[in-house]
Design brief:
390 residues, 49% helix, globular, alpha+beta, Butyryl-CoA Dehydrogenase, subunit A, domain 3, binds flavin-adenine dinucleotide
Length: 390
């Protein structure tokens, strides 16, 4: 169906990609799909599924083999994200772990930090999170209030983070803090904080309108002693590092959005072919055909730009502006495609058992997290006017 009209994706053309795709699809069909209801009831996935993904080599696929990774390139990570998105599965926070936390360590960690964490992460034995947002600041990250006071061989950390993906299950989080607070040397610094550290506690997972199997929660730090060797990068480098790494995070959100739209269209084509009204398959109404034609066109246009962005990331050339463009435009597109598709399901589209309903609820947040779509437009405009306006 949809595959009949889509452009062939060169980024996934190799035999290795085809084999990986088949393995991921098998993993989802045999080990993930029938657990989703249970995970949603608990508000989190199981630790076993993390270990199983690790065993299959599906975590940290683009990390070097010397650190336990797959030694592959990012296109394999992208494929993994897409197969989950197409089926409307948002529970396991694998992508945040493999595509966001792992590169922070690889790119800015010391050799000891890489050796300590990356192999455990690749095995799924250590679940990770990233803590930037606080109750008083999300978009305006520089305003964060969590402090890390220098105590010689360690920092004393106090503060709070909120909306943290993998927060409840995490064994380790990269946390943005203010070092040298209220002095001229004040700045944002990143620390590697293990959840077993004394004074590190977690809230219960939030009840959300979607992504119900993902354990989003608050993290609290009460006089947590963090050894100096757990600093990631230099003091005051945190903001710069986050701005650089956020391009990749935004790309992953774009990947999830485009694949969700593809999955939504595919399942709507199938549904409308089977469902009848007035003795006619819904698919035969011109409205259905026009809506799905429009959705497919939008999805294809975004997929083409997305593939270019993935290639650029693999070549270390993805700019902040392109990452912002794909993030905001693909998530807006996904929102409207899923909405149109749900409409074509009629009342069944509103029922939780139908993946289209989950896609509808799950993807609303994509326009908010990893930087809101409004912030993406600010970043794109900043690039446009860089040499003109102060
Ligand atoms: C399910 C979920 C998972 C998340 N996971 C993580 C995570 O793992 N780690 C983490 O650190 N954070 C995480 N977040 C937080 C997320 O990144 C923030 O919610 C997001 O960046 C927005 O920040 P905020 O909620 O404080 O909104 P605010 O910054 O308060 O923004 C509110 C509104 O104001 C608009 N706005 C703000 N500034 C401007 C401006 N200058 N111009 C125009 N409009 C503006 C915004 O676009 C938005 O519409 C998660 C959030 C959710 C909901």
């Amino acid at each position: 169906m949809l595959q009949n009209i889509l452009l062939v994706r060169k980024i996934y053309a190799s035999e290795e990609h085809k084999m990986m795709k088949a393995m991921i699809q098998e993993f989802i069909a045999n080990e993930v799909l029938d657990q989703v209801d249970e995970w949603e009831k608990k508000g989190m996935v199981s630790r076993e599924i993390w270990k199983r993904a690790g065993e299959l080599g599906l975590l940290c696929m683009d990390m070097p083999e010397i650190y336990g990774g797959g030694g592959l390139d990012f296109t394999f990570n992208a494929l993994f994200i897409e197969e989950f998105a197409k089926k409307g599965i948002s529970g396991p926070g694998f992508s945040l772990h493999s595509d966001i936390v792992a590169p922070y360590l690889l790119n800015y960690g010391t050799e000891a930090q890489k050796q300590k964490y990356l192999p455990l992460m690749a095995k799924g034995e250590f679940i990770t999170a990233i803590g930037m947002t606080e109750p008083n600041c999300g978009s305006d990250l520089k305003a964060l209030r969590t402090t890390a006071v220098d105590k010689g061989d360690h920092y004393l950390v106090n503060g709070q983070k909120t909306f943290i993906t993998n927060g409840f299950m995490c064994d380790m989080a990269i946390v943005a803090v203010k070092t040298n607070p209220n002095t001229e040397e004040e700045g944002v610094t990143l620390l590697i904080m293990e959840s077993s550290m004394e004074g590190f506690t977690k809230g219960i997972p939030f009840k959300k309108i979607g992504m119900k199997a993902q354990d989003t929660c608050e993290l609290f730090f009460d006089n947590v002693k963090v050894p100096k060797e757990s600093r990631l990068g230099d003091e005051k480098m945190g903001f710069k590092i986050m701005m650089k790494e956020l391009a990749r995070e935004r790309l992953t959100v774009g990947i999830f959005a485009v694949a969700t739209a593809e999955g939504a269209i595919e399942s709507t084509v199938q549904y409308t072919t089977q469902r009848t009204a007035f003795n006619t398959p819904i698919a035969e109404f011109q409205n259905t055909q026009f809506k799905l034609a429009e959705c497919s066109t939008q999805m294809q246009i975004h997929q083409t730009f997305l593939d270019r962005c993935i290639e650029l990331l693999v070549d270390h050339k993805l700019t902040s502006e392109s990452a912002s463009m794909i993030k905001y435009s693909a998530t807006d597109m996904c929102g409207s495609v899923v909405d149109e598709c749900l409409q074509l399901f009629g009342g069944y589209g509103y029922m939780w058992d139908y993946p289209i309903a989950r896609m509808y609820a799950d993807n609303r947040v994509a326009r908010i997290y990893a930087g809101t779509n409004e912030i993406m437009k600010i970043l794109i405009a900043r690039g446009l006017f860089k040499d003109i306006l102060k």
